[in-house]
Give the backbone structure.
Amino acid sequence: MGLDCSHDAFHGAYSAFNSLRQEVSRVTGGSFPPHWLYNADGTLAKGNDGLAIYDRTLNRKMIYLGDGVGPEETPGLYEFLTHSDCDGKISPEMCVKVADDLEKVLPKIEAKNTPSHGHIAARGGYAEVVRKFIVGCRAAAKAGEPLIFG
């Protein structure tokens, strides 16, 4: 079971989609739950027990946006980060904004080249998965159809 978006935008585990949103948020200066901490090389920081650790100063139910990221400044990015990970749809008009804003973030994701795992790694890494989501958004918008999460 997992998330399947229409227009071939994303197919994978819910956790993979949230990992994708964590990476997008992180490269834009924000933090997406559960607010994992990272080493300088982009790998997850781990405690003495070998488990990944997170920033306990941040509310695990909140999305923290970076400077210049918000519903007014970057409506597409805001939609991508705050949209449900299991249902709903993004309108064709908003799909254009999501694609545009993700295209602006893509060079940062490419430059960071954070190691990935699971469904993200199997699909070529974060940059490739973002590219595919952009293509899906553009296909939905071109068809005049919403991008459906299901």
